[in-house]
């Protein structure tokens, strides 16, 4: 896991230009290992994200008897063991900083014939898990926790799980995916209904593995007992990682940057819609498909941005990109208002408070609210901010230096390696100078 202290100093200025490809999509990389492990036969994964979060998922399945070959740093060959072929691990499964790993694996491990304990780092151990524990308990799972938080201890269940129709109060792909994965082992058809549709990578990938998934606006369902068949999964570039480079070009007038092979799943493109509403020039070029996922090249040309009231309907499809959106707001003319985003308070950090505190430290007028923030664009000064170990906060403030009057110091950046290995090196190619 990311250990020790890593602080950054980011030099001011720069003009983003050229062409880059950010690393593979984290959400899809996780799921490729999970579903490949449960499939019959071999699954070939290309474009895999070689970040610590995804490596935690890979090591966990290796500990449960799945043979996974590292063909290259970004290519895997997963020798699936079938839906019922996992073996009890000899030790607790350490999932590091990965909420995706813990929540999704809770679903598929709740139905196994062996006990499992899931642990994580200090940050993951503070994140709420009752949102998956409670519906799994309704399905018959037996899970002990630390007052709704990790570690999670999953016990074997006599007679298997029972299908449920779950109505979620929040749109969460992790909750939905957890329940659908448990539904693969349940008697009957399991469904999840959300207030709006969250990212649908699990549904798309289940279909790629041959599973029938019923879905409609805000609802997904799966019938238990279906067989997964090994396949090929090409992983597109991660739009959540691309968001920092979209931001970089959007806030610097005159910039011209091409981002290649970016996944543009419609449940993930809120950041494009929001930046465009602020006046950003973002073109979608060469649209195509990677393994059931829509992909395109994104061309961003820098020009002036304006403050907006962010449409709450876009929050779910941009939930991981709001640190970058907050920086865009700081560079825009006028005030930007974010509402309906209370989920930001239970991410790797309280992202509303962490971003507001950081912006304030750099001289930007920013006020946090219970479900969002009000940010008035202005001149970004020099100063030091605390990322509180939140990788997306650290990378967002690194890009803010493009518009800063002087260097920006960023504390506690080691967790950037969970999602974006090589960030500083790639950022340097567009003129963002990060030194540790």
Structure write-up:
With 436 residues, the protein is of the alpha/beta class. Helices cover 28% and strands 26% of the residues. The protein has twelve helices and 25 strands. It has helices spanning 26-38, 52-63, 99-109, 130-138, 173-183, 201-208, 239-250, 270-277, 322-330, 351-361, 391-400, 423-428, and strands spanning 8-10, 17-20, 40-46, 67-72, 75-81, 93-94, 116-119, 142-144, 152-155, 161-162, 165-167, 186-187, 189-193, 213-216, 219-223, 232-234, 256-263, 281-290, 293-301, 335-338, 365-369, 372-376, 383-386, 408-411, 434-435. The chain has a four-stranded mixed sheet. A hairpin with a 2-residue loop joins strand 21 and strand 22. Helix 1 runs parallel beside helix 2, helix 1 packs parallel to helix 6 (201-208) and helix 9 (322-330) runs parallel beside helix 11. The chain is globular. The two termini are 18 Å apart.
Enumerate how many helices there are, as a single number: 12
The total strand number stands at: 25
List the uncertain runs: none
- What structural class do you assign from the helix and strand content? alpha/beta
- Strand percentage lies at 25-35%
Rg calculated over all Cα atoms = 21 Å
User: Level of helix content?
Assistant: 25-40%
- Overall pLDDT score: 96
Largest sheet, order of strands side by side? Answer: 23-24-1-25
The 3D shape can be described as globular
**Ends apart, CA distance between termini:** 18 Å
Q: How would a crystallographer describe the biggest sheet? A: 4 strands, mixed
